[in-house]
Write a structure and sequence with these properties.
187 residues, five-stranded mixed beta sheet, 3 helices
Length: 187
């Protein structure tokens, strides 16, 4: 006894015929990194292991904190968690190119809890407002260089490696180092 094709199997067959690339298995190699811009000509990466999510946030969603450094934009809430958002270019000493925007592109990074959050358990979050998020790229381990001697002095405390991609040097930031930036803590 043979089965009659149903409407769903006919539609699936037609879809496979029209879009065969959707049904081909692809082997993704390398570790995923979120690629973004810090400033004009300064490209950067974050390991996806440290990225919770990326968001476009209206300026009104960030609550200002008085008496904080200019690089600290304020506090925001996402997924029932409140965390600090910093203007990453300003934190690193670059001109504030996000200041005139009414929306921020925010990378929410997982970081160890700071001294102020010791009573909590698990990881804390840190929002990094950046001028541009360029998507996810995959890199093989041999593409990353751990030598950071040529890294600009303002980036070196927060960078663990570099790589060349599309004729541009990309700096691999380590969020736990960013979370310890002196500018984030009042003196």
């Amino acid at each position: 006894m043979t089965q009659q094709p149903t409407a769903s199997t006919t539609s699936l067959s037609r879809l496979q015929e029209l879009l065969p690339q959707l049904f081909q298995s692809t082997q993704l190699t390398g570790q995923p990194y979120l690629r973004f811009m810090v400033a004009e000509g300064i490209g950067a990466l974050l390991s996806m292991e440290h990225v919770q999510e990326s968001l476009i946030v209206e300026a009104e969603q960030i609550t200002l904190i008085p008496n904080m450094a200019r690089s600290v934009l304020g506090l925001m809430n996402s997924r029932d968690q409140v965390f600090c958002v910093v203007n990453l270019p300003q934190l690193l000493g670059y001109p504030d190119i996000t200041g005139s925007q009414r929306r921020y592109r925010v990378i929410v990074a997982r970081v160890p809890p700071s001294d102020y959050q010791r009573s909590g358990t698990g990881e804390a979050l840190l929002g990094l407002a950046v001028p541009q998020i360029q998507g996810v790229t995959r890199l093989q381990e041999e593409q990353l260089q751990t030598e950071i001697a040529a890294c600009p002095a303002n980036l070196s405390p927060y960078v663990t490696g570099t790589c060349q991609q599309d004729e541009q040097t990309l700096y691999l930031f380590y969020p736990p180092f960013l979370a310890k930036a002196p500018a984030l803590y009042p003196t």
